[in-house]
């Protein structure tokens, strides 16, 4: 440190002065994410588990199809073939429990990124260093969404590629087939969507156990509560849930699944995805602004 | 020590004006008005629950005041996009994530404020944590966490520094180091505010005092002024004839209290007058020693009415 007198002490602050840039906050959040061991564990094992479940499904389906003594009885002459009787290879890439697991993982990681700061007290250090709280949260949301998009893309791409390769003798699809790219894209986007929902809930609740329960409740339990078709409005609420929208978006258009009275259209599915992501991000950024920490 | 410089000091002044913070029915900080100036260490004293931490949080914009204002450099801290180059603070050494290394923690903070990377190594060196830099904070002792918190406060080389109970958990060597550091920071022309609930922690460090109790301002003055008006003279007397001396002195208006070691503490009368009275009554004295109350006693005397949590039978 240079020698300084009491009268001319202005060397600090100005000496270190540098402009205020948003990318500084991005790199800070990037460091925070990757300096925790749990990040590597969860983001490493999570996709492997999801891909594993899907691959296992494809293998057992391929095995069953290979050892099938004969094809299902053909419809009587003059009657159209029943499409729902046909094997759907795409369903093996997007097995429901596997992707529900991904939803929980992504939601929890997003939630942890926020409630972890609150439960540890780090949030006070963070906001004392950067009083612009909304900027901090925006950076956190951006970093998390990006990382999760990569994670989702890898998981969805690998699930699709490996399962369809396994099922290549049983109408296995390529990415150019109708509905294939849409299914992969929806599954890739499911991870950032759920992470953002987790962040919003983490910012609202700020406690570990409560937030994780809320993540599971909102992402997985809520859709099952609104499944009945007795009342249209009940089903419409259920249709507005990410899980329901995802199911509609990964459905193979080459197979007839029209058993629902009030199905979710593809457009509606994308709207649900977009709306949930935007609202969740906005909530996560907005709620930290006025609250004491 | 000369007072702060004539110009440029505004940038380092903390100014609270009628600052009030309520939590429901509880008033944690009550119409607090004070000014903290650069160039010396200001001790921020008060019993537990007096509102010191709340005040510091409000200064940092972590908590919004219910009414009143507090500014650093003439504007609320909350309005600044980045904080580390303006105010460095150690509020609670536990306000870190135990899963990160000391280096990662400081590195994220440095990045967030666009500070050069070398600052991380410089402050680690400064607080003596260079060898522990890659260890997880969760395994740190409280003293090491305090050092890390001080490192974070110094990161932006700020003109204003706030420390909340920074001596907790430090070993004697650490306490000496911190005192030296605070002296140096103040001598460099910075504003240094150090909170404590123990006078002995700040009496060798601070030149200025702000004393609060139950959220209200009790005193804001120099340590010397505080010592002067806080002092009440007491005299320690040792005699084999306690009962007779007591009756003689109380008759003349003094108060005598017997101590556990057999001596008496006399208040309200000078040592010369006590000696004179004892001589005339032919009471033998073994010791006659005037002493002034310590700063700690002055502090306790001032805040006695405002102790939020006191043991059932303190006296």
Protein described:
The complex is a heterodimer of chains A (293) and B (315). By secondary structure, chain A is an all-alpha fold. Chain A has one domain (22-61, 88-290). Helix content of chain A is 68%, strand content 0%. Chain A has eleven helices and no strands. Chain A has helices at 22-34, 37-66, 90-93, 96-120, 122-129, 133-166, 180-205, 208-225, 232-239, 242-249, 266-290. Chain A starts with 21 loop residues before the first helix and ends with a helix. Residues 1-10 of chain B have low confidence and may be disordered. Chain B folds into two domains: 10-228, Rossmann fold (3-Layer(aba) Sandwich), CATH 3.40.50.300; 233-292, Alpha-Beta Plaits, CATH 3.30.70. Chain B contains ten helices and 13 strands. By secondary structure, chain B is of the alpha/beta class. A six-stranded mixed β-sheet of chain B has the order 5-6-7-3-8-9, sandwiched between helices. Chain B has a four-stranded antiparallel β-sheet with strand order 11-12-10-13, with helices on one face. A three-stranded antiparallel β-sheet of chain B has the order 2-1-4, with helices on one face. At the A-B interface, helix 1, helix 4 and helix 5 of A face helix 2 of B. Chain A: This is ABC transporter permease. Chain A: The chain crosses the membrane at residues 40-59, 98-120, 141-167, 179-201, 208-226, 270-288. Chain A: Keywords: Membrane, Transmembrane, Transmembrane helix.
């Amino acid at each position: 440190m240079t020698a300084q007198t009491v009268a001319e002490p202005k060397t600090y602050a100005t000496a270190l002065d540098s402009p205020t840039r948003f990318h500084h906050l991005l790199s800070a959040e990037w460091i925070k994410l990757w300096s925790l061991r749990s990040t590597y564990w969860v983001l490493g094992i999570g996709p492997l588990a999801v891909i594993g479940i899907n691959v296992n499904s494809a293998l057992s389906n391929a095995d069953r199809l290979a050892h099938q003594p004969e094809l299902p009885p053909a419809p009587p002459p003059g009657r159209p073939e029943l499409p729902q009787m046909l094997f759907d290879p795409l369903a093996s890439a997007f097995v429901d429990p596997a992707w529900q697991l991904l939803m929980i993982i992504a939601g929890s990681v997003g939630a942890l990124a926020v409630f972890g700061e609150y439960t540890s007290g780090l949030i006070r250090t963070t906001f004392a260093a950067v009083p612009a709280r909304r900027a901090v949260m925006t950076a956190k949301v951006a970093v998390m969404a990006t990382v999760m998009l990569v994670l989702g893309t890898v998981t969805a791409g690998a699930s699709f590629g490996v399962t369809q390769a396994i099922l290549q003798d049983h109408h296995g699809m390529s990415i150019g087939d109708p509905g294939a790219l849409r299914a992969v894209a929806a599954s890739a986007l499911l991870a950032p969507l759920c992470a953002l929902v987790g962040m919003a809930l983490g910012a609202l609740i700020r406690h570990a156990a409560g937030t994780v329960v809320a993540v599971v409740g909102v992402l997985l339990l809520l859709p099952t509560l609104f499944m009945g078709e007795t009342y249209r409005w009940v089903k419409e609420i259920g249709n507005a849930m990410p899980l329901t929208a995802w199911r509609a978006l990964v459905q193979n258009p080459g197979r007839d699944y029209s058993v629902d009275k009030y199905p979710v259209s593809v457009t509606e599915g994308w709207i649900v995805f977009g709306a949930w992501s935007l609202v969740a991000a906005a909530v996560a950024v907005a709620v930290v602004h006025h609250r004491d920490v | 020590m000369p007072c702060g410089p004539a110009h440029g000091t505004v940038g380092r002044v903390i100014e609270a004006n009628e600052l009030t913070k309520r939590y429901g029915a509880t008033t944690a900080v009550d119409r607090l008005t004070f000014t903290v100036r650069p160039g010396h260490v200001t001790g921020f004293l008060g019993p537990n629950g007096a509102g010191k931490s709340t005040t510091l949080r409000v200064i940092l914009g972590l908590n919004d005041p219910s009414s009143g204002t507090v500014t650093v450099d003439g504007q609320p801290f909350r309005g600044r996009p980045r904080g580390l180059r303006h105010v460095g603070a150690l509020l609670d050494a536990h306000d870190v994530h135990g899963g990160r290394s000391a280096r990662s923690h400081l590195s994220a903070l440095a990045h967030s404020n666009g500070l050069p990377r070398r600052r991380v190594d410089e402050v680690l060196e400064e607080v003596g944590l260079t060898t522990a830099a890659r260890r997880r904070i969760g395994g740190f002792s409280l003293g090491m966490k305090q050092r890390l918190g001080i490192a974070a406060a110094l990161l932006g080389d700020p003109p204003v520094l706030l420390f909340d109970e920074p001596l907790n958990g430090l070993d004697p060597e650490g306490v000496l180091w911190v005192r030296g550091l605070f002296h140096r920071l103040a001598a460099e022309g910075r504003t240094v505010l150090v909170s404590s609930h123990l006078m002995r922690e700040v009496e060798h460090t601070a030149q200025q005092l702000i004393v609060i109790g139950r959220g209200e301002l009790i005193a804001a003055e120099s340590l010397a002024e505080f010592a002067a008006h806080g002092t009440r003279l007491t005299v320690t007397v040792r005699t084999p004839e306690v009962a007779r001396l007591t009756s003689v002195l109380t008759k003349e208006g003094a108060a005598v209290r017997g101590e556990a070691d057999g001596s008496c503490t006399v208040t309200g009368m000078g040592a010369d007058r006590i000696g004179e009275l004892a001589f005339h009554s032919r009471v033998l004295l073994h010791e006659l020693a005037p002493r002034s109350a310590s700063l700690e006693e002055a502090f306790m005397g001032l805040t006695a009415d405002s102790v939020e949590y006191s043991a059932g039978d303190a006296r």
